[in-house]
Specification:
mainly alpha, single chain
Length: 74
């Protein structure tokens, strides 16, 4: 597979870096990004598994997670 792709979650996080926030706001924003990143990961994995099902392959979440990690993890 090619190079790592940047998720929209990571793009937004980078775009907001340097924004003036209080310490509490920064912690809240970090928590929200962590949640959004996990939600995105689950969506990609579920879509990959559904694609496997549509192609008459045995759905395999382990393989789907490998795909996600190879494609999106830094």
């Amino acid at each position: 597979m090619g190079g790592k792709q940047q998720t929209v979650v990571h793009w937004l996080q980078e775009a907001l870096e340097g924004t003036i926030l209080t310490q509490d706001q920064t912690m809240q924003v970090i928590g929200l990004f962590m949640q959004a990143d996990e939600m995105f990961k689950e969506q990609i994995i579920d879509t990959f598994v559904e694609g496997m099902r549509c192609q008459n392959f045995d759905p395999n979440k382990g393989r789907a997670e490998i795909y996600y990690n190879e494609t999106f993890n830094k």
